Amino acid sequence: MNKMLVETPEGEPVIRMSRTFDAPRTLVWRAWTRPEHVARWWGSRAMGATRVIKLDVRPGGEWRFEQTTPDGTVFAFIGKYIEVDEPEKLVNTFALEGMFEDKTVIETHRFEEKDGKTHYSGVTRFDSIEDRDGMVASGMEAGAQESMNQLEELLGELVSA
């Protein structure tokens, strides 16, 4: 299993992530954009199952994923799609309901295929370096790594099916 690379460039309010999956781009796109698949890989398992409440992948469409911790706390991750260029690129907003809704966080996801593998690269842009550093301090890297590991497991199942 390969590891996701995470970079926080000095002086830029961005987080860059990249990883290569042993699956064709159309399959990675499908896993990224269909509710039944997203529910299986997105988020931390320690936070509980991911419920995909809304996933309307089109410009202006909204998404909402919820996780409930063992103590009953519900975390709702929300956003809107800005750009959809299937199967190459997705641009969306990202927020955590009740905590970061006043922030502008833009995620750009790119999927490039070469020799039957898909290279994913993502850039998350924050309002400020302080906001970026706050996200990094929240443990997002471990959560993102866990999600990508789960995505790789799912893709292995889908490739074999």
Structural class: alpha+beta
The first-to-last residue Cα distance is 20 Å
Overall 3D form: globular
Q: Average the pLDDT over all residues and give the rounded result.
A: 93
Show unreliable segments.
Answer: none
Q: Considering DSSP H and I runs of 4 or more, what fraction of the residues is helical? A: 25-40%
Beta percentage is 35-45%
Q: What is the number of helices?
A: 4
Query: What kind of sheet is the major sheet?
Result: 9 strands, antiparallel
Describe the structure in brief.
This protein is α+β, with helices and mostly antiparallel strands. It contains four helices and nine strands; from the N terminus they run ββααβββββββαα. Strands 1, 2, 3, 4, 5, 6, 7, 8 and 9 form a nine-stranded antiparallel β-sheet that branches.
